[in-house]
Specification:
This protein is α+β, with helices and mostly antiparallel strands. It has helices spanning 11-30, 33-56, 136-139; strands at residues 70-72, 77-87, 93-102, 109-111, 116-124, 142-149, 155-162, 169-171, 178-179, 184-188, 192-198, 203-204, 211-212, 218-221.
Length: 225
């Protein structure tokens, strides 16, 4: 069962770092001289890293927006780009792409922008380019999912992209799963980017440089159906 404040993917790392801190600090007390100083310093550094891990893997509850006419943010972070592109994997059509950069200080649990069915899942291993760069969207390790809305003939895509120091994308769902707007669907470890592909004609409600919150910030209003 998932703890309401810590993402489950963080537990193995947190337990390992905690055990290392105990070993270093205990060793510092049991030894003397230079070895004791070294072990105590390592223990302090490890405790600081433990605090960072607890902060990084936090998974707070959210007051989620529930509105079938809008797309909500899939990630915490900063909007770094809004542009029209062609999404040729799932949508196979022009789309308005909103790119969100997540620093290591953002919550990294991602949420679904609307309720629907996951019709498409494609994982691509790749490089670890700085997620700010345009090439990162295609060259980096990434996972693209396609969702068809429960109401109307609306399809969107979301691409999760590993960043410069991110090393794992963990997707909680499977193809053909039903998801609810604002539901947790993914986590990316240690810095990354998320691209939201909105249908043509959507009214984009965010701008480059704006801070957004997963599940709470309305990113776009869908065209009247």
């Amino acid at each position: 069962m998932q703890h309401p404040f810590i993402a489950r993917e963080g537990y193995p790392i947190i337990y390992t770092v905690c055990a290392a801190a105990v070993v270093f600090l205990a060793g510092g007390r049991l030894t003397g001289g230079v070895a004791s100083v070294f072990l105590n310093v390592m223990g302090i550094i490890t405790c600081l890293f433990l605090l960072f891990c607890l902060y990084f893997f936090r998974d707070p509850e959210r007051s989620v927006v529930r509105d079938s006419n809008v797309l909500i943010s899939p990630a915490d972070g900063t909007v770094i780009d809004v542009k029209t592109v062609t999404e040729d994997r799932y949508l196979q059509a022009p789309a308005q792409r909103i790119s969100i950069f997540m620093s290591v200080f953002n919550v990294h649990v991602n949420r679904t922008p609307l309720s629907g069915t996951i019709e498409y899942v494609q994982y691509n291993p790749g490089k670890f380019i700085n997620a700010f760069k345009e090439k990162a969207s295609e060259d980096n390790e990434n996972l693209l999912i396609g969702i068809r809305a429960q109401e109307g003939d609306v399809k969107i895509a979301v691409r999760f992209i590993a960043g410069l120091i991110a090393r794992r994308i963990v997707f909680y769902k499977r193809k053909d799963d039903r998801v609810e707007q604002g539901e947790r669907i993914n986590i990316i470890r240690f810095g990354s980017r998320v691209d939201l592909f909105c249908p043509p004609g959507s009214e984009i409600l965010v701008r480059s440089g704006q801070k957004v919150t997963a599940g709470a910030t309305v990113m776009a209003r869908l065209r009247a159906r």
